[in-house]
Please model this.
Amino acid sequence: MMTDLNTWFDKGMTRYAYIHSMKTHKENLLTIYNSFVLPEPMKDALQGIQKNRLRAIVITEDWCGDAMLNLPVFMRMADEALIDIRFILRDQHPELMDRYLTAKAKAIPIIIFIDEKGKEVVKWGPRAPKLQQIVEERKKKIPSKEDPRYEKAFKLFADRISSLFTTDHALWEEVSLDIIKKLLAKLNVSSL
Model:
């Protein structure tokens, strides 16, 4: 079992290998990545943390709607902060995922920021609080899994959330603000 985060980082896929391997949300991820523009104050803050020489391990799967939204936003942030990213597929590496369970769930994506020595600095994920609220409110309308209408209702929910995530620029900014606030607080850097 690998416990050293440097080992996990070395094992992970580069951003380009991950994107090229995607089969589900590749177009949506690229749409967000190509459309998202970081606000100037955030660019300054991200450039300010470059000296920390952070790296990131992202636990993900390409079918995940949250990853479809969060990862391209984070990739833009990583460009500005010079954070090298490696991607680990959750379902192929349960031993790493089990270390980062959220409320006993295997919710993704999880972004693990590490320093040069491979020590965890902070983790983020799977969702910004505002997005969590939106998803929870919309999920209330889905019948229980035992209900024969569940599958159709869940598919409609997933399609609508996916559409919202790929078009609502305010949500993209919400994700970036949540990530940077958590990062800056852990690095004891003044906020935006």
User: Anything to note?
Assistant: The radius of gyration is 17 Å. The CA atoms of residues 131 and 168 lie 11 Å apart. The beta strands are 55-60, 84-89, 110-114, 120-124.
